[in-house]
Amino acid sequence: MYKKTEIIRQTFLNFFKNKNHIIYPSSSLIIDNDPTLLFTNAGMNQFKDIFLGYKTTKDKKIASAQYCLRTGGKHNDLENVGYTSRHHTFFEMLGNFSFGSYLKKKSIIYAWELLTEKKWFNIDPNKLLVTIYEYDIESYKIWKNIIGLSNNKIISIKNKNNVQYTSDNFWNMEKYGPCGPCTEIFYDYGESVHGNIPGSKKDIGDRFLEIWNIVFIEYHKLPKKKFIKLKSPSVDTGMGLERISSVLQNVKSNYDIDIFRQIIQGIKKKFNISNKVNHKALQVISDHIRSSAYIIANNVFPSNEHRGYVLRKIIRRAIRHGRSIGLKKCFFYKIVPILIKSMNQANHILIHNKNQIENILKMEELQFSDTLNKGLKILKEEVKNLKNNILDANIVFYLYDTLGFPIDLTQDFCKEKNIQIDMNKLKKKIKKHKKLNIQEKYQNKNKLSISINKKTNFIGYNFSKQKTIVKKIYIENKSINKINKKNKGQIILQSTPFYGQSGGQIGDSGTIKSKDGIFKVYNTTKYGNIIIHHGKISLGKIKKNTLVTAKIDIKKRKLIEKNHTATHLLHAGLKKILGENVLQKGSLVNEKKIRFDYTYFKNLSFKKIKKIEKTVNKYIQKNIKVISFTTKFKNAKKKKYVFLKNKIYQNNVRIISINSISNELCSGTHVSKTGEIILFKIINESSISFGTRRIEAVTYKKAFKETYKKEKKLNTIQKLIQSNDSDLIKKIQNILIMQKKLLKNNKNITEKLLILLIKKISKKYIKINNHYIFFYILYNEKNSYILKIIDQLQKKFQSSVIILINISKKIYLKIKISKKLSKIIPANTLILKIFKKISGKGGGNMNFSEGIINSSLSINKIIKKCKKLTFAKIQKKINNYKFSTKNY
Prior knowledge:
Helices cover 38% and strands 26% of the residues. It has 22 helices and 37 strands. α6 (258-271) crosses α7, α7 packs antiparallel against α11 and α15 (554-578) crosses α16 (606-621).
């Protein structure tokens, strides 16, 4: 019966191909334009719109092997991974689907044939049993009369609390919508494995493994518990590849199938890990390397929000488990080649993105390592001192809020040690913290609240001036009938040439004129489908429902258009030079400059920056026509036009097309030909967060100004060093060599002077009972040199009190007391006593303290008073203390 996982996958697809099903490839882990899903979590996701009735399909019978990820919401398997034999974050779902073709009879016959026939999976029928919905008599009869199962092999699952359609065997897609009964097929591992039959109130254990769920979508659920029968019912089935592989490979855990065995053995061999180590940790790591790699391959990168946050959680959990089995150095990225080898037919996307996956995993681990080490150290110390096996929620919150140590990692750590966390107390603390942050964020901020359902007609793509009607006027969030001179407010027009800020492009400015007054618009924003003009009356007044002329600042608009089209060209240039995996993360386009944020995990060299700049300027010089058109969003996706993955789009979308160079979904305004941009210049490139970089650039006149500024600087340098273009670099190199020599000489002289100074201070001490007391005044010395002086003195005089005052712009005080002597004269106590008599502030520990003297006394008086006070305190302490060998 043993079959490799890749053969099992292919056998499933071949079976349904023989049954005239169309084989669909796995869709992306990222579901475009579906705000309800972070990731694909079931095989039916790519057919969701068909099940909901929003779309139709000519393919009535379909089968697929779909990549899935379950890490949140209803389907959250993350916390179970490593602690059960069945759960994964990433897995493959085998499924067959019928859209109005077949229903119960064929679905059940297909399933039984594939599972039990020798030609296919050849599972012993005696090892299988099924569950059905208690009122699904049709399914019962098929299993009983056609398949031939006995009654004890057909388990009826009842409604919960006798409420109709609430059984575990009645499936719902969402709160409302398509739903129906399901029948599940279980594999029985036998009496030697603990567990009770499905549907039992007792612990189901590991004996019975659910391998296939067949859902019959027969109803549409409406509010008020109303169900209507669908005219065209459908079938949605799901069988986890890893689960069926465990059955066919005769193992009792998914982590013992060939794929995971290869990954786990590869990890052990790679890092020389003993077979005695925590197998749970290895299971977590082997699962999480799969999910992390596939998520990154789908162009999601670690961040603190949305999909990036899920990825970050998975990576960090794997790293934490790696530390628990002794993998102290950066290790996670090194597993990628092992993963690729194990995945065989499913590794194409991984091979294509291998370098990017490794780079991201490595950088994320390096970034997180310090936080992890500090957090684990604190956790281990706290666990040692636990009395009631409950970790204080304040510790968990401190780790999270101060160190950035994730709460889920603390929970994971405690779960391993059987330690409880007071989650109610923790939740209250987090809620209170969030509330304070929100209050702080929105304090003293007025928010314009406009409730209007109509749409402003935007005519700004073709016109810069328009006669229109004033529909609404607002001052301080109140709707009014007119706005007078010097009043600030907001105006909504029936139609407008003003572009409302969106898609990174700033809003237009200009004027709104009536026969009675002028309203100067300084910004324009969007509120749903409404365009709001923000500004102030500069002359007269403007009334509601009057005719006005709206005119934009055309000069500013033209500059914005040049910059916006250049942004599209920059995006295309980045993809060409750095690779198609570059994704836009945000942008700002105004009349002055471009700011473009994008995903990339390396610093850009000067050479690459210039190459990108050169590419964009080539596009500009070709003077390509810029075309805009509207299409369906689904068509845009098919044609692989560029769009923001996290944004929700309408059915109809606007495309800005620049030949084959760039095709992007965009509502902004643009030039008619690329040549209008004239010139493009990158002025800055930097990192703004992990994996996200920023390019700032200018066009047209500002690009020329930037070039002129650089030439002017170069000219100034030439004059300063008296050089021309031909020998400029050589001359600068010579100056740097000379500077290096001077610095070295200076360092040698300083060190010699320092040795002399230390010798001088060494002779200026007062001796009390074999203890050496130093009090010395320095002038304008570097802090690093002062610390060297203290260090050398303490090495020479092992029982000593060293007090140094450094007079520069401020008066600095440093006190260093040898370790054993500090028990009777703590440095932090001594400095506080000095600051009580002489005004100052500072602190430290028993051995070393420092501060600044803020007294208004003259320097001589400060030194005299400080010296007298210090010696009096030290002498008193030493003389009152009986020294013996026990103390030293």
